[in-house]
Amino acid sequence: MDDLELRKHGLDFAYSRKESDSSRRIHLFPDGTFIGGPENTDKFSLAKQLSEFNEKDAQAYFRWDSFWDEAASILYPYFLTEPPTIADLMQTVRGTSRETVLEKLLTWSYIDLIEDHFQDDRIKAYVMDSNVECDPESPGSMLGAALFACTRFSRDSDRGIPKMSMGNISDAIEDSAKSNGVEIRTRALVEKVIVEGGSAKGVRMANGEEIRSFIVASNADPKRTFKTMFQTEELDEDTLKRMGSWKTTAGCVKFLAAM
Fold it and tell me: Containing domain of residue 52, as a range?
């Protein structure tokens, strides 16, 4: 946001998310009750509302919130580093309260954690939010939610629903890049990465043009990058094996509507 000066180049949000976004989220139930709404300005007011459904669950909500604080603190330091191994993560938390949190992230499902905290089905439904972008009954499914939980360490003003459309984000990035001398080509199909002496030296376009560079970066998914843009003999056996076994059959769709 700051490095690319995206606000200067037109990015703005219709509203900024706060650490607890329950004030702008409401979960309605068939009996006319609901959880969420504008009166919930923080976790304390939300817990008070939950107490109307189940007093024990209201108290458990603080443990729930604390769990995600610790989960996020495990992953957040690695956002701008090489991805850690499981051993790296375990070493980081060994001997601390976060050791149990990491163990649950890796071995429990999201449903397991909900069942461990709450009794009332309506409260369970409320905490089963859209941040779990995988099978909530699968072990390890909490890792996706932990990734979203890391937003609590960023500025409230830097996250939310962008004004105009989601395309406003890419428009601002494009404008920022061009202001710094970047050339952007669209509808330009990359056919192959040029490899010489074991190093990537550029790309060959579908029209035959070659573009040489000291650095070659791909924003295509890893499987597409390594399986379609390199020759088999240019990659080591381990990379080929990992790319071949990578499961990419999932999909995610988000629809935003003004009401």
Answer: 18-158
151 shares its domain with 29: yes
**Predicted TM-score of the model (pTM):** 0.73
SS3 assignment, position 16: strand
The long-range contacts involving 141-144, CB below 8 angstroms and separated by at least 24 positions, are 141/109, 141/110, 142/71, 142/104, 142/105, 142/108, 142/109, 142/110, 142/113, 143/105, 143/106
Token code pair at residue 75: 């992953």
Establish how many alpha carbons lie within 13 A of residue 227's alpha carbon, considering only the half-sphere containing its beta carbon: 11
Tell whether 30 and 154 lie within a shared domain: yes
Same domain, 38 and 136: yes
For the segment 94-127, what is each residue's pLDDT rounded down to a tens digit? 999 899 999 999 999 999 999 999 999 999 999 9
Q: Assess whether 77 and 29 both reside in one domain.
A: yes
CB 19 within 8 A of CB 33: no
Q: In terms of domains, do 69 and 197 share one?
A: no
Question: What's the pLDDT tens digit per position in 172-222?
Answer: 999 999 999 999 999 999 999 999 999 999 999 999 999 999 999 999 888
Looking at the fold, whether 171 and 133 belong to one and the same domain comes out as no
